[in-house]
Write a structure and sequence with these properties.
The complex is a heterodimer of chains A (about 180) and B (about 190). Chain A has about 180 residues and is mostly helical. Helix content of chain A is about 70%, strand content about 0%. Chain A is built from 10 helices and no strands. In chain A, helix 6 packs antiparallel against helix 9. The longest helix of chain A is centred in the C-terminal third of the chain and has 33 residues. The termini of chain A are far apart. About 15% of the residues of chain A have low confidence. Chain B is mostly helical. The longest helix of chain B has 20 residues. Chain B contains 9 helices and no strands. The chains are: A mainly alpha (about 180), B mainly alpha (about 190). Chains A and B meet through helix 1 and helix 2 of A and helix 2, helix 3, helix 6, helix 7 and helix 9 of B.
Chain lengths: ~180, ~190
C-alpha cells in the first residue's frame, strides 16, 4: 500500500483503487454546457431599463410642456413692446375701427402700423392731400377681403388667437411668480 | 500519520490551468462569449459535480450542476477575482445544496429504488453515504478524489485550497472512511 497514491495516483493502493472503481460509476459524465439565456447578451438588466424609462418619460413630458409654455412667449413680447404684429391683428379683429382710422388717415400707405406709431403727425400731414376717395375705396376693399375669410382661415385665425391668449396668460403667471419671488 | 513523508512540491497535471489563463477565460465569458463559457464548463463541471455529490442524491446532481453554472453565469460580473473562480463555484454549489433541501424533500425513496435496481450502484451508494457522514472538508475532498478522479494537486488548484490542506483532508478523511466501512488498516 502506498500513501502517495491517495495524493497523485503514483504507486498503488488496492483498497483505494477498489473504492475508485466502485465510486467511478457515479463520476461526472460530460454533457454539453447549459444553454445560456438569450437576454444575457444584454449589458443592462430589465430593471435598469424600467428605471431609465421611469425617468425619461416624465422628463420628456416636462420638456414638451415647457416648450409649449415658453415657445410663444417671445412673439407675445414683441406684440407688447413693438407695434408690428398686434396692429395687424387689431385690424382684422375690428374692421370698423380700421375704417375709421383709414378714413382719418388719408395716406396712400395702407399700413396701419404707421398710423398707430405717430397718429397726430400723420393726420396733420395728410389732411392737405386731395386724393382721399380712391384710397378710401382701396382701403375698404382691403377690409372686405379681410372680412371674407374662409371657414378654414377663420378657424386658423381663432386658433392663433387662442394660442396667443394662452401664452399671454402663462407669461403673466410667470411674471407674477418672478415678481413675488423678487418681493420675497 | 506523518505528512513529512510526502513531497512538498505540487505536481502539475494536464487538467490544471494557469490563473491568468482562467482569469482571461472568465473575462471572455463576461463579455458574452458562449464558447468561453463552454470551456469553463468543461473545466470545472467535475469539480461542481463532486461538491454536489457530497451532499445531494446522485440522481439530482446532473441537473444541479447545470443550475449552478447558470447561476454562476448570471452573477459572473460580480466575481472580483476571476482567477479564483473554482472556489467561487464551490461556494455557489454549496449554497445550491441548501436551496435544494429548502425547496424539496430529500429523495431518500429514490435512492432506495436505485439500490434495489442495481447491486453495484447500491454498493457505491452505501460507500457514498458513509463519505457523506464525514466532516464537510473531508467529505468534499474525498468525493473529488475517489469519485471524480482528481488528484490532490488538481483539487487544490481548482478549489483554491492549499495543497497541504488537501493532503491532510485526504489522509484524515481516508482514515475515517476506513473506520466507517470497517476495511483496511486504520491508523490511530
Amino acid at each position: 500500500m502506498s500513501d502517495q497514491y491517495i495524493w497523485d495516483k503514483t504507486g498503488s493502493d488496492a483498497e483505494i483503487e477498489a473504492l475508485e472503481d466502485l465510486l467511478g460509476s457515479m463520476r461526472y459524465v460530460p454533457v454539453p454546457a447549459p444553454e445560456l439565456p438569450v437576454a444575457r447578451a444584454k449589458r443592462f438588466s430589465s430593471s435598469f431599463w424600467k428605471i431609465s424609462l421611469g425617468f425619461a418619460v416624465p422628463a420628456a413630458a416636462m420638456t414638451i410642456v415647457l416648450a409649449v409654455m415658453w415657445a410663444p412667449a417671445p412673439r407675445d413680447n414683441v406684440a407688447v413692446n413693438g407695434p408690428a404684429a398686434p396692429a395687424a391683428k387689431v385690424l382684422v379683429e375690428s374692421p370698423v375701427s380700421t375704417q375709421q382710422t383709414t378714413a382719418a388717415d388719408n395716406t396712400p400707405a395702407a399700413e396701419p402700423r404707421a398710423a398707430y406709431v405717430k397718429p397726430v403727425l400723420k393726420l396733420k400731414a395728410r389732411a392737405r392731400r386731395p386724393i382721399e376717395r380712391s384710397l378710401l375705396a382701396k382701403s375698404t376693399k382691403d377690409s372686405n377681403v379681410k372680412r371674407s375669410l374662409t371657414p378654414e382661415e377663420k378657424f386658423a385665425y381663432d386658433q392663433v388667437r387662442l394660442a396667443l391668449s394662452i401664452s399671454a396668460t402663462q407669461l403673466k403667471v410667470v411674471r407674477d411668480s418672478v415678481n413675488n419671488a423678487d418681493e420675497e | 500519520m506523518t505528512l513529512g513523508s510526502f513531497p512538498v512540491t505540487v505536481t502539475q497535471t494536464r487538467a490544471e490551468s494557469r490563473p491568468d489563463e482562467t482569469a482571461q477565460l472568465v473575462r471572455r465569458v463576461i463579455d458574452g462569449e458562449t464558447d468561453a463559457f463552454a470551456v469553463l464548463y468543461r473545466r470545472y463541471a467535475p469539480l461542481v459535480h463532486g461538491i454536489l455529490l457530497a451532499r445531494l442524491p446522485y440522481e439530482d446532481v446532473s441537473d444541479a450542476v447545470q443550475e449552478v453554472f447558470l447561476a454562476a453565469y448570471k452573477n459572473m460580473r460580480g466575481l472580483r477575482e476571476p482567477e479564483a473562480i473554482g472556489g467561487w463555484l464551490v461556494r455557489i454549489a454549496r449554497n445550491h445544496v441548501v436551496d435544494h433541501y429548502r425547496s424539496r424533500r430529500p429523495a431518500d425513496e429514490l435512492t432506495e429504488d436505485i439500490r434495489g435496481r442495481e447491486d453495484r450502484r447500491a454498493e457505491a451508494a452505501e460507500v457514498l453515504d458513509a463519505i457523506r457522514t464525514l466532516p464537510a472538508a473531508y467529505r468534499e475532498t474525498l468525493v473529488l478524489r475517489l469519485v471524480e478522479g482528481l488528484t490532490g494537486a488538481e483539487i487544490a488548484q481548482q478549489t483554491g485550497l492549499s495543497p497541504d490542506s488537501v493532503r491532510v483532508n485526504l489522509h484524515r478523511g481516508m482514515d475515517l472512511l476506513r473506520k466507517k466501512l470497517g476495511i483496511g488498516p486504520q491508523k490511530k
